[in-house]
Structures are given as structure tokens and as C-alpha cells.
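Self-study notes.
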Amino acid sequence: MKKFLTFLVAVMLLAMLPVQAFAAGSASVSGPDVVRAGDTITVRFQAGGGIYGGNGSVSFDSNQLTLQGYSASLSAPWTVEFAGNSFVFYDNSMAAPISGSQTIFQATFQVSSDLQPGTNVAVSFNGITLSDGKTDSHVGTKTYSVTIAEPLSNNANLKSLGSSNAQITPAFSTDTTEYTASVPFSVSKLEIAAEAEHPGAVVTVGNTGLTPGGTTDVTVTVKAEDGTTKVYHIKTKRAQDPNYVASANNSLSDLAVEGFLLSPAFNPGRADYAVYLPYETESLKLEAAAADAKAKLTMPDLGAIPVGKTTYEIPVTAENGTVRTYTLTVFRADVFQPGVEPTEPIEPETEPTTEPATEPTTVPTETEEPTTAPTQAPQQPQEARPGMGVDFWMWILVVIMAFCAGCITILLINGIRRK
């Protein structure tokens, strides 16, 4: 209200200024031509005719419409203000009048979803007064009115479907969406004639170009008024060019194992490869590509990789039917079992040997007074020591024999001296 009073004061001041005269002010309202129950609509208020301001109010049936809000369309130096459903707008500078018709503000409403088709809905702008700074123009009431239209159709059915250069099977039915057709090589494009059941639906035909020696999925898409879509498919097989020679290329252009290296490195001319995995790797991602787009590549089901050696086959079938098989041998290591830490050996109480525990105590001589040779007869068996094997005892025997030989030599020398 304060702003409105400011506006009135401004109008009074304008009346005392020498202002150029303009034609009488005018106003109008506009909104969408077609409105359906549940829609959101925007109604615009326009005014012009050399005006510096104006005011009025908005009225509507709240059982039909719910006000979402107002938004101003003018910028500085103009100001637009709302108090409930009343509005006022004015030029703060009193220097930028609106000459032609211009949108002052717009009101947004939600249309009740309960309204039946044929119901009239109106938004009125009442008590419109416009000022050119010298004279007020009482425009009165401007009303936007519209009749609720039928709801948008969701009918996305075809009424008819046919082709001028192919026989489509089975016979057309609205509810049947899958069809087939066969054409000779001379037919490179399928000609389609299709009509929707509902006049507001849009029909689009796609992918009509046919591949020689292949099957093409020709589509007929029906889009209903409300956006519902339905697609009809015509799987069309075109004969191969009679002069065509099928490719014999059954090679791979790439073979790789994600995260690991092939052994040897991939070469399209080589068919066998290996890959080495640690025990912790239980699965692999194998990537392969055929050199010829018309070749068929069959990837193996790797699944869980077992420990040890496993060979997988990757067959590549050329367009002409010839097959080349690549192999991948996977070596997965067994689980690592660390050995026991080395410890000092425990000496047993006795250790059997292949040598006698004692040596002979006497050595026979040829003299009349034999001398007893020193013996090596321990009272108790010696403890076996680790490492005392056959070589050790052979060395002891040699020493004993050398000692005995020395004793015999001494006895012989003594016997000679006595004589």
C-alpha cells in the first residue's frame, strides 16, 4: 500500500509537469490456447500506450485454478508490486513510459485435475487503471478464458502396416509388433506404409536400408499424444550379392589378458599362448577381437581358474565357415608353503655303524718273546658323533695298521741285535 500511495503521489506530481501527451492507455491478457485438466498455465498481463503506471486486481475461480505465483516482467526503473491479488506498477524515474504493448507481469496457475472436458476456465484482470502522467484511463476488465480440452491420448497403436516392395508376415494385427520379410538382392530399401489409430499420434519409420546377405531390423515407432510410444519391428532379410565372395579371414586382431602379459607377445599369425598367474589370482578378464567384422569369435568361459595348467580354446570362424582355433594356456601357481626353520640336530645316545666298536688288542709276531701291542679298547662304547661315517673309520684303521707295522719293525731290529 505504501508503494501504491507513492504511485498516487507520483501521478499528482506528473500532472503538474509539462509532459508530452500520448494516446490513451490500453491493456490485454493472454494465455495458452489449449488447456487440459491438470495442466500448469501462465496468463500474461500486457499494457501500453505511453503510460507511466497502472493498477488493478486479479480474480479467478479457486475451485478450478490454484495460484502458483506472480512474476514481474519489467526491469528498472519500473517497479511491479503485489498485495494479495491486487497489483500496481509504475516508472520510478517518470522518464521511461511504455509506448507499445508490453508484458507487465505474468500469473501462473495449476488447473484442477478434476475438471471435465468442455468446462470453461477464466482469469480476469479487474478495475484496470492506466496513467500517462496526465490523464488516467479506466480500462475496466480484461479476461482470459479457455475451454478444457479432451485429455491427451495414450493410443500408440498402428491402424495399418504394409510394404510396397516386400511381403510382410504374419498378417498385420494392431497388437502384433514382430514381423519378418525377405527380399531379393535388388531391393536395397524397404518401402513402408503405416497409419496410426489415433489422429494425434505421430508415426516414424526408421532403419529402412537393407544389408546384403544380412537381416535388418526395420522399425515403425508410434508416439501417442501423451508421449506413450510403441515400436513395431520388421526383421527383413536381403539376399546376398550373387557375385560376392565370402571372406576367409579367421584371424584375431587382438588378444590380451587384463593385468598380465601373454607369452609370447601377441602375433595374429601365432595361435598358442600362455599366461602365468600367482596363486592369489583366481579369475581372468580375457579380451579378444576378430580381424574381420564378419568373422564369428567364440570366447571361452574362464570361470574360476584352477591351480596348475589349464588350456582354453578361442575359435574364430571366418565368413566362409573356416575355423581357426587360438589357445591360451594358463599356469596358476600352487599355494606357497614356507619350510620349517632349520634347527640344531639332536644327538642320539648311540648310533649304529658298519664298523666294529673295538679293534683287536694283540698283534701276532714271529719272535720268541712277543710283545703286547698297545690296544685301543675303551671300557665303554664311544658315543657316535655326527659325521663319523665309513671314511672316518677307514682312517682310524690305517693309523692302527701303521702303528702295528712300526712295532713289528722295532721287534725285528731288537731280535737282530741279540743275535
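Second protein, same conventions, sequence then structure:
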Amino acid sequence: MLIKVKVSCKKPKKIFRFEKTFLDKAEVSDRTIGVSEAFGLSVGVENPNTIYKDLLIDIKPGDVIYITGDSGTGKSTLLSDITSALKESGSFGKVIQDKEVEVNQDSVLVEALGSDLEQAIKYLSLAGLNEATLFIRRYRDLSEGQKYRFKIAKMMSIGANTLVFDEFCSLLDRETAKIVAYCVQKVARNLGATLLVATSHRDLLEDLQPNIYIVKGFGEAVEVKYIEDVKSRPCSILKEIVVKEGSIRDLETLKRYHYRDGKLCNIKKVFKAELRGETVGVIVYSTPTYSNAGRTKYFGRHVDVEHLNRDFITISRVVIHPKYRGVGLAVRLVKETLPKVGYKYVEALAVMAKYNPFFKKAGMQEVEYTSTLSLKSRETLQHLTKYDIDPRLAAAKQYITQKLEKLKPNQIESLIETLLNSDTTRYTLNILIKKRRLSLEETKQTLKNIQTLAKIIQKMAILAQNKRYYIWQRNNNTEE
């Protein structure tokens, strides 16, 4: 079989011309002669089979191109020719196909891309893998949808300016396919990258939001549609999701997807995002903490208890099912529920805000601040190195517990003395056991319990983290 391909490119207009003809030749045999006699078909000679001819496509850097059509119509061939043309053009930067991306099955996600941790989290978050527990998971343990997202993150991390996918999302269930399609086009547009996909599925138009929609039919049939002024729309799945009041039970169904373990206290309100009867997201509002450096900076003074109890509530959890991350569900949960909790001020502290600023996108004001308590906690945690404990891992209770169990009694006593010299130890202990006054001897006895000591160190590590403070204020025009 001979293949004739003609591809020319007029760079100023970015108009690409494509032509492709396969020359088929059926070898002569008794059976092929029988077919020839019965149906009048030629055998033993080359027959041209043109699948597109004088096909003009105007492509600009940053376009999203969606090729679809029935199996066997030549979608993959057209995708390959367009990919070659974009590479030869020189105007589309580094062109990378998903099949060219090699991934070690045993790779831990944060180790497998980017030049450092910050870059790795940035790319993973862009691809919708913005869950702390996923950061340290191996590629082989991901779902098929998550593997797709990781490949997108990997392509971006190696500098792809044009992303190419054949058989795009073909092995995914259609709901996951729509979510991945929405996420990949959003990432491409945010980075100004060109996106080129081919698939036999025609249900991704709304979520891919293409600039160019190509339907390849049988024979030479090709239909090219240009969609002008593509406006960003929410993921189609969001249309079916309803936000309503929920309960602790809804939090229980999703809590395994949050990086913080432990039971929340003083819960005031719970709302859930529900899709066809299934809870896919939850937001929890709780009583605010008495002391908050971000709040103090925002108001320019310390807010008294009476004012806090009357006017303030805190967002203590926002948990989204991994399948539905990256489509704006967290933003919607926050935005829709802020006016419904009935408080004048709603506040939140976030560790992941640097990579996923959904509180800000939902309309909350970001306040930059430096917490004295955080600085003191970091200073105290540095003493852990003397006991073979890595301060960077102190937020992981299981790690801390295992390390403490290996220490000798005299080392435990020494560690307790070190901690008691810190201003933050008594504070965190009071939070933990809900008690404001403990004698020095009571404190020492309490800390001799390995589990309690591990919790104290974990709490310190959480206090030491860099967080961002967000606040929302109800106004007279706010509708409940």
C-alpha cells in the first residue's frame, strides 16, 4: 500500500492545506477474482482511496481543535497530519503527543515532574490533581481519569506549547471524560497552549469548547466549523449538581478525601453538593478560633469574644470528591453558601490557597499576614532534629508516633522539657484537651502519653504552616 500526503502551510494566515490518498491494491487470487467477477471490482491494480483533498484549515496558536467522527473515517490520520504541520510551522512551539510521554508506574506524583516541589504542586493543581494525598501517591495507584490528568500535568511540565491526544478519553466513562475534557481545555487556555484532540465520541463539544470543530465522515467527507468568540462556560456536569443543606453524615462520606484527619468540633452548618443523589462535595462551617492573626490585621485590632460569637463563623472544611476536582465545584460551594449561613463575617484559613485559590475566586478577600504563633512553632519544631525527628514531617501523626515509640524514657523526658520551654506547647495542649489551666506537673504527666505528645507535635506543625487568611462580609444587598 502506497501513501501520498501533501501538506503545505501559508504561515502568515496559519492556513494549512491537507490532502491524503491511499493507493490500495488487492492481490490476484482465486477468491479475489471471484469477487471481481461477481461485483465488477478491479484486482491486481492500484485503486486510489482519497480520504481528504484540498482540505483547508485555519489554525492559530492557542486554538482548541476537536476532531470527531465514526471509527474508520480517518480521524487519527488527519490528527497525525495536522500535528506534523504544526511542528513544521514553527509557530506552535513544542508539540507533544500524549503517547510520547513516558511515565514510570512506580513514580510518586510530586517526584515525577517539575524542578522542585512548588513546580510539581503547581502543575498537578492545574491538572485537577490538587489533593494532598494524591501528591504522594504512585502513578499505578491512580484511577484512569487521574492518570489522564497526570499526563496533562507531565506534558506541561516538560514545556509543551501544543498538546495532542488521539483516542481522547476513549477508555473513560462518559461523565469522567467530560470532566477531563473540561479540565484539559481550561489548562490549555490558561497557559495559552494549543490543544488538538481526536475521538469517536461526539459528547465533548460543550466541555472542550473548541475554536475548531472537525467532523470526519467516510470517504472524502470533512466538515470544518469555526466557533468565533468562544466564551468560558462551566463544566456541563455542574448543571446537574445541586447545593443544599447537609449533615455530618455527608462529611463522613467524603472525609477520607481530605488531607486532615481528626474530628471537627463546634460544627455550626454543613452544606453538600449532590449529583443524582450522591454527595460529591461538602463544606463545613464551625465556630471561629479566639485568636487569629489574619483577622487582627484585617480589623486592625483584636476582636472580642462577644463580637466573635455574634458575627463570625469559619469555613473549617471544603472537601470535593477527586473525580469532580478542577471543574469549579469548590468555588460554587463557597459562593452559594456564604450568604446562607446567616453571619455577618465568614472567614477561612487555607494551606493550599497558593495553588488553588478557590476562596478568592468565590469572592472572599485575601489578607496577607505573618503569625507570631507560626514563627514560634517553627522554631520549636527545629529542636526535634535532636531526637531523630524530621520537622518537615511533623504534621504526619503516624510518623511522629512511630518516632516517639523508639525513644527511651529519658529522651521522652528531655523532649517534654524542650517543648515546655516553648510558648506554643501550653496553647496547643489547651486546644487539645479543652482546658485552660494546667499546673506544670499536670502538663508533664499529660505529655508522657505518647499519643497525646504526638498530637501536640502534630498541632504545632499545623500551626507552623504557611496559611492564607480569607474573609467575606455580608452587605445589605446580600441575598440568602
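Instructor comment on the second fold: Residues 1-12 have pLDDT under 50 and may be disordered.
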